[in-house]
Amino acid sequence: MTAPGQRWTPGRLLAWAALLGMLLVTLLPLWFALKTALVPPQQLYEQSASLVPRDPTLLNFRRVLGLLSPEQSLAVGGSGAEINFLRALGNSVLFTAIIVTLQVGCAAMAAYAFARLRFPGRDLLFALFVGTMMVPGVVTFIPNFILIKELGWLDTLAGMVAPFCLMQGFSVFFLRQFFLGIPRDIEEAALLEGASQAYIFARVVLPLSSSALATIAMLTGINIWNEFFWPYLVAKDEAHQVLTVALQTFKSQTPQGQPDWTGLMAAAAVAVLPVLLLLLAFGRRVIESVQYSGGK
User: Fold this and answer.
1) What string of DSSP letters covers 3-34?
2) How far is Cα 282 from Cα 145, in angstroms, rounded to an integer?
3) Would you say 168 and 103 are in contact if contact means Cβ atoms under 8 Å apart?
4) 215 to each of 26, 164, 170, 209, 278, how far by Cα in Å?
5) I want to staple 211 with a disulfide (CB 3.0 to 4.6 A). Which of 18, 117, 175, 288 is the partner?
């Protein structure tokens, strides 16, 4: 039984059909990637038109995670390409975690300063800072590369992290708007009790802003996890390769004359897994944050 206001009218049915259609278009490529990862390498072209793998196997995941030797990989139909995806996965996790931690922390402090503190030129500085969102990222690649080279940080984790480690205009803007929605009475009461501004920020404002901080952490994490060009440009050493660069290297290594599609899709599935975990962990908080900001 449906409530009187929730009846299945033609418009509601059409909306649900459109939503399911968009969901199908979004998930179908992911399913094909997973299906290809579960197909034995020798049967890739035989099962290319099938929606479901006939003989699913975890062999391709074992290959890309380094659980099989190159000789064993060749024996089962792999390309024999040697990429340490476990190390690349660890590099990506470390690369993303450092940047997310620094960006969220720095953006929160800057946003609180713009929202609550009074100082000359605050509004102009905030406008200029938010205006940096209109600057394409490609414009800063060459100056950043020259700076990292002069500092001697090429092929280092510091060189990979440096351009992303402070804050972004969107993060500061989003958190500032959220902080403005927090009642001042709470902070004023803490001030009357003798609390410092730093104490109020750390013990009052941040706990009340957990959903907004989770939103920024998730969006930043997904963006940095998928970053390819900068790590590819700065970290040529395989010891510092992140997962996106390792995927490109694996695709380009074709001892058998063609890409190892089953292994590549298995590695891609491994790369997608942390993003899905982020969505599961912070998805509800993101919705709460958007609803709260929209209500204000």
Assistant:
1) -GGG---HHHHHHHHHHHHHHHHHHHHHHHHH
2) 33
3) yes
4) 22, 17, 12, 10, 10
5) 288
| Tally of residues, the chain | 296
Question: The dihedral of CA 14, 18, 21, 27: what is its sign?
Answer: negative
Q: Give the position of tokens 């278009």.
A: 25
Residue with tokens 């800063």: 140
Q: What is the pTM of this model?
A: 0.82
Give 120's Cβ-side CA count (13 Å radius): 0
What is the tens place of the pLDDT at every residue in 106-162?
999 999 999 988 889 898 999 888 888 888 878 888 899 999 999 999 999 999 999
Cα Rg of the chain, angstroms = 24
Structure confidence by residue, pLDDT tens digits, 242-261: 999 988 888 777 655 677 88
Is residue 243 within 8 Å of residue 271, measured between CB atoms?
yes
Q: Show the CA angle centred on residue 99, arms to residues 62 and 114, nearest 5°.
A: 150
Q: Which amino acid is at 203?
A: R
State the DSSP code for 243. Answer: H
Residue 54, classed as helix, strand or coil, is: coil
Residue with structure tokens 């990292």? 148
